[in-house]
# Entry
Amino acid sequence: MGHLVLDRVVDRIENLAARPATSPLAPQAEAELVDSFLAPPPDRGGDLKALLARLDEAADCALETAGPGHLAYIPGSGLFSAALAELYNRAVNRYGGLASVAPAFAALEESVIRWMAHDVCGLPEGSGGLLTSGGSMATFSATVAARQHRLGEDILGGTVYSTAFAHHSVAKAARLAGIRTAHIRTVPHTPDLRMDSEAAAAMIRSDRKAGLRPFLLVATAGTTDTGTVDPLPQLADMARREDVWFHIDAAYGGFFRLTTRGAERLTGIEEADSITLDPHKTLFMPFGTGALMVRDTAALYAAHDGTGSYLQDMGAAGSVPDSAHLGPELTHEIRGLRAWLPLHLHGVDAFREALDEKLDLAEHVHDTLSGVAELEIPQRPDLSTVIFRVRPADGTRGAAERADEESRRLLERINGHRRVVLSSTVVDSRYTLRVCVVSHRTHHDRITEALKIITAEATRTTA
# Structure
């Protein structure tokens, strides 16, 4: 059975470059396939080979998120070596919530966490964190830790600050942590789409004067919309002056600190109280691999610790913490193995070089599209996301609306080629297209093809 599965997977991986970037199924065929998978399991077992063929059908009915043409959203390409690590991990099936159950595996995971905290984020000795199912859970745990640390049990006036470009999981985490929606503030941004630190300070002081309790400032190191990095050093200084917890959402951008350019552009991360990372983005891990790094792990313990009499037989595992006491999950698989094996197998330099390549490719996309007269390129990329849209004929509102409609049609035509997939967003009320270069399988050849498609379709606009 293992050989059957592995042969299928290897065949898919080897043919990713030739596969369409979007589902090849017509809407009716896709609907019929979806309905077929809603059926309950049979009473009697089936044939593995036939079932794998059905799984291939299901895998084809999707965006090809593992392929080189996926330039939409923030791709998560999934290293094959990480998949092999997970096959081993799931078969061995060790429990990871309490370190004493599998102490060596717990130490393995802790080594990955310490590397992320110290080597990637630049946090001091004594910092740490936990691996999560994704950035949303990391941000939630950080919010709960900040709330407990700064507000205690009285959370009624608790107030959170972020920008319009913060990931929507920030506001969701605040609501789940019991913060009133009216107390989730949107800080104005500067013309270059970064948080306005002076405006944030003014809002915090005004809210505090009004009797509220500001406790959490959330900056972004690589926004989903545009890849923009907030002014982290200034915000860190302001957060200290105003005595609020400083969290940085570096789910997308954090691992670019492995590169020289990324380290320069992300200066200030090391000043955070907590940091969200997504190894399933810019460390190329499989989906479901997030991370939370904190300056002081005691704050995580204070917010998440708990036990029951049924755990009285569980001992401590020395210097390795229990992940169950750092986050909301008691059931926690050994998540570190999917990162540990690729890091040790390929070496950190391989990841550093891949991320440098993505920065180079994004700059190439920006420079090329800047030469297309029909397109407007609002800003140079901080990281590996390039935004563009159809240029309005003039400065009137009507021209901008017509250009937005042309941009929508442009996206449809680009994605209609099925060689690449782009996505869109809204930036300062303008419909905007995005090219996000993250996949470890995306190289110069596919970017060259993408640019040819974009340029050819853009010259057909009539705005």
